[in-house]
Design brief:
About 35% of the residues lie in helices and about 25% in strands. By secondary structure, the protein is an alpha/beta fold. The strands form three sheets. It has a five-stranded mixed β-sheet, sandwiched between helices. The radius of gyration is 19 Å and the shape is globular.
Length: about 270
């Protein structure tokens, strides 16, 4: 059975087409749509969903169910109000994330875990009772986010004579999640700079410490004793973040494969139930 899942956030949307029994595998089709300035979130989501449906139609692949994972603080009406996104079910983002993490065996059915979701515009820390799937405490900050890290990379490169736009800075940051060294160059080719993963880790050490403090405070406010931390969202690809959280809290800190797709994959899993 083919299902469509969407993870929606302030940055835009990630949509995937996958099989219900194997959402952990590489999606048949995936699309990431960044939200344009002044564009409604519903329009951004509809663009991603329409793209998936169009490709599926050309491949003669019937989409059985669709679901959109959204942050609870977001008005559901602003998520799906137009286009094909209207026909999709809406599921809370945390429920989608927990469902997928259970599916791949990263969290058990009982106990307490901390979800640290690092997105483009902010970080959300949620303490969850896994037996009831109840949120015990959640806090969100815009102080630690992917966009700020992109700007930090851009400023560092500029100070070394390499002037690039924010999209290029983001690409260099993402490349450092895979490679330990990245050779950067400005569009004119007049300046070059070698950026290492250690350079980047040193650059973001302060913000990462702040994220660790936020996790500690949220856990303390919940009054619960967690067994683990799971880092999701695009920012989870920065390996030093999970290491820092584990060292600071003493809790086992886990990062699922392709953490940026956890919400979309969880939405796909929940789509037939809605």
């Amino acid at each position: 059975m083919l299902v469509l899942g969407v993870g929606a956030g302030a940055h835009g949307a990630r949509a995937i087409l996958t099989y219900l029994d194997s959402p952990h595998r590489t999606p048949i089709v995936s699309r990431t749509v960044r939200r344009a300035p002044g564009q409604s979130l519903a329009t951004t989501i509809a663009t991603g969903v329409d793209a998936i449906h169009s490709i599926a139609a050309t491949m003669s692949l019937p989409v059985q169910f669709s679901a959109i994972a959204y942050r609870v603080a977001t008005d559901p009406g602003s998520v799906a109000t137009q286009g094909t996104a209207r026909s999709a079910s809406l599921v809370p983002e945390t429920a989608a994330q927990v469902r997928y993490l259970r599916f791949i065996g990263l969290v058990p059915k009982h106990g307490v875990t901390v979800l640290c979701d690092i997105g483009s515009t902010g970080t959300t820390v949620t303490v969850i009772d896994l037996a009831s799937s109840r949120t015990l405490m959640t806090r969100r900050t815009a102080t630690f986010c992917g966009d700020d890290l992109d700007h930090s990379v851009r400023r560092l490169l500029s100070s070394n004579g390499v002037r690039v736009d924010i999209d290029a800075s983001r690409a260099f940051k993402e490349q450092l999640s895979v490679d330990s060294v990245v050779s950067t160059m400005d569009p004119t080719g007049a300046a070059r700079h070698v950026l290492t993963r250690r350079d980047f880790d040193d650059l973001i050490a302060g913000p990462v410490r702040y994220a660790g403090m936020l996790v500690e405070q949220t856990l303390q406010l919940s009054g619960a004793r967690a067994q683990s931390i799971v880092v999701v969202g695009g920012g989870a690809n920065i390996t030093s973040i999970a290491r820092s959280l584990e060292k600071r809290t003493g809790l086992t800190t886990l990062v699922p494969p392709m953490p940026e797709l956890v919400s979309a994959r969880g939405a796909a899993l929940l789509s037939p139930d809605r």
